[in-house]
Predict the 3D structure of the following.
Amino acid sequence: DTGVSQNPRHKITKRGQNVTFRCDPISEHNRLYWYRQTLGQGPEFLTYFQNEAQLEKSRLLSDRFSAERPKGSFSTLEIQRTEQGDSAMYLCASSLDSGQGRTEAFFGQGTRLTVV
Amino acid sequence: KQEVTQIPAALSVPEGENLVLNCSFTDSAIYNLQWFRQDPGKGLTSLLLIQSSQREQTSGRLNASLDKSSGRSTLYIAASQPGDSATYLCAVPLGGSTLGRLYFGRGTQLTVWP
């Protein structure tokens, strides 16, 4: 396993279109997170899963955003009716919760979304 | 809510200097703190994870310390090299929580010139 994998790396879309991103976490990791990062800012939390259960969602995750992790493995993040303000880097991370407290989070290379 | 501040916002130094990057956070009841590196247009690379029971953690030329009581962490980079040029981010969870959300600072943008 070579780490967290995200696809596509770049996406350009027209305003109003739907887009979907995929994240493949490190195979034994049971936690998966989505973050969004805009230029000059630190990543902002969107949502996270423990196995297939979505346990927390940020208020940043409007009703146009939906995330799934159907079998507790890979995850998808879909944005419907994209807006220019959705342009950002979307980052996925994973970690292993061993019950001893949160362990190290590993990030993917991100998907850069540009809405034109 | 957890607020994370990183100082300085940017740093430009000649090769070979020893550096200190600062991170402060408002909710000190954390279980751990993590330092990351981010190259332009790339994802985050984990550098060091410090558990709340530790005071410091070392990896090669990097040393990170954690003072929970004062809500501060420092990342020390020894003998800096041009390859160290990147943005350095610190991240903490919400105090008292083992849940997934991390709170990030805006980062320190480091440039090391030859």
About this structure: The interface with chain A takes residues 4, 31-32, 34, 36, 41-46, 49, 51, 89, 91, 93, 98-107 of chain B (CB under 8 Å).
